[in-house]
Amino acid sequence: MPRATLRLAAVTALAVAVAACSSGQPAPSAEPSASAPRPTAPRGTPAAPSERNSSMDIRVTLDGQPVNATLNGSPAARDLASLLPLTLDLEDFHGTERIGYPPRKLTTDGAPAPAAAKAGDIAYFAPWGNLALFYKDGPSASADLLILGHIDADTAQLAKAQRITIQTAP
């Protein structure tokens, strides 16, 4: 009987120790397994930062007047470029930006870190699916607002723009 009690006490102590130290996840091993997360980016993720930051010149007209503009290399900006040529009617929003709606929502996969919009920025507000042309600095950074590029236009021209046409540069 003492031997059975001793065995039961040892098993109970071992079970309590394992349960107290366990997170419910398998213990890490020194050898990577096929299912173990890798420190490098998995396949199918956005391009490396140097490619993500490469810019693309576009042709933009605001109310028929050409202005210089670029799109960044983010997945959302590349998705917008896939819709070109594109003409959108614009309306004012909060006395800060002009907004228009592309024919479909853009991807938000691989979005860069949030940044506050500045005057001249072309941005995409994911929840509503609208493009925004900021003629004043925008609100603080938000994960819902993706900066897609920049328009080199006077803020007064941006503030009253009624229509934008965006095309790929030749």
TrEMBL record:
Signal peptide range: 1-19
All residue ranges annotated as the Cyclophilin-like domain in the record: 61-160
Chain intervals for the UniProt region annotation (Disordered): 23-54
InterPro entries (alphabetical): Cyclophilin-like, Cyclophilin-like_dom_sf
This protein's UniProt keywords: Signal
Bias kind Low complexity: ranges: 23-50
Protein name: Cyclophilin-like domain-containing protein
